[in-house]
Every structure is written in C-alpha cells, then in structure tokens.
Amino acid sequence: MKVEVSRLYTELEGESLRGAVAVVIDVLRASTTVVKALARGAMAVVPVAEIAEALDERRRLAERGVRALLAGERGGVRPEGFDLGNSPVEMSRADVAGSTVVLTTTNGTRALRRCAEASRVLVGCFANGPALAGFLGQVREERAVLVCSGQDGRVADEDVLFAGYLSRELRRSGAKLDASAREAQKAYASAEQGLERALGATPHGRTLLELGFAADIAAAAVIGSEMIIPEMIGNGIIAAGKGRAC
Known about the structure:
Blueprint: E1 2-6, E2 21-25, H1 30-39, E3 44-48, H2 51-63, E4 68-72, E5 84-85, H3 88-93, E6 100-104, H4 108-114, E7 120-124, H5 129-136, E8 143-148, H6 157-172, E9 176-177, H7 179-191, H8 195-201, H9 203-210, H10 214-220, E10 230-233, E11 236-239
Parallel strand pairs: 1-8, 1-9, 2-7, 2-8, 3-6, 4-5, 4-6
Antiparallel strand pairs: 10-11
Helix pairs in contact: 5-6, 6-7
C-alpha cells in the first residue's frame, strides 16, 4: 500500500481519491466523537454540513420511527436545541445506544462529504489508531489517502500529527510512504512524548481550552482506547462490517 497525506481536505481535487481508501481525520473533535458514539452503541452517525440539514434529517428519521439525536458545534459550542455537542467526553457519557446521531460540525462533516469518490471512507483518530492501522493492512486498495479536515480553511496541526502516527504504523507493516506522509511522520515523532500537551498547544486546541474542553483534549490524546472502525456507507457512518446505515 502507498500512503499519502492531504493536509487540508479542500485541496482535494475531483477524482483524486478514485480507487483509494480515504481516512478522514478531525482529531479535535469530530472523528474522535464519531468513534466514541459508535463505541457506546449508536447504530449510525449521519454527518451533515448545516444545522438546517441536521433538523431535516432528524425529522426524516423520526418519521421512520428511528430515535435520532442531534449533535454538533458552531464556534466550538453546542447549537441551541441540540441534544449533544461535538464532544467525545459528552458522547461517552450520553445514552446513545440504539440511536442514530445526526452530527454537524464546522470542518469534519464537510471533509467526509468531500471524499465521496473514494472506494472506501473510514474515520480515524488516536482513539482508534492501532485498530485502524491493523484494518488498513487488510483492505484491497493499494492507496490510502489520509485526509486532514483542518480548521476554518487552515491546516490543523493535530490532524497532521495523527496522519503522522498512522503513517508510521502503516510503514511498520510494509506500506510505502510518499513525501507528505514522511513529513507528517516526522511531525508526530517530535510530539509523541507529550501528545496531550501538543494537542492543547495547537491553535484549535488553545481555543478548546479557553472554552473549557480540556477533558476532550485529554480524551483525544489517548491512543488505542477504542477498537471501532467507522466507515461511511451511503449517507451514514457505521462500524465497519455492519452492513448499511440509513
């Protein structure tokens, strides 16, 4: 397998993902939140770009008798009327078992939409990093593109750090890294011994600390806390191998 890193999802072009497996990364916090939701028993997570879309999706699901919860953020905080924020800690504590979580965030859900041309779309973060590395070693695709969501149109250092971690793990199992993956791997090596501190020192990490989300940063820095591999199937994200979502 050849591993590439896209440092910002908006830089992806049309068919650049065709035939590749894409791993969407939004460490702080969408991809970590998705992993926690599925690990706590949510049936699916449906990513949408806008708040109005989230409200429409909940209505559609309710008409089908599906228990749907709204989760997300704008400016880092939970939108008015939503059940949950975009918080891995909050998601871990919530009663989400058996429900469908409709999630809208500023960056991560848009990055997922951008990867529609990939043959498979997975979700990665430090929480499921070891399991994801093992899973990728078994897929049929010969290219893996690690897609960083970024923050408000800028590269997010925390996403690059995870891309570097995953690149290193895949290299250890025989994958070939392109220049972008090797660069990300070096960035992770410099932060490995103080990962939580490194996440908190990023621009978005500092914003989250100011908003009172230190616990989310701590949760996002724990490597291997979950075994879930989220995969986008249709318009929903489910645990890989579980069939179709919504």
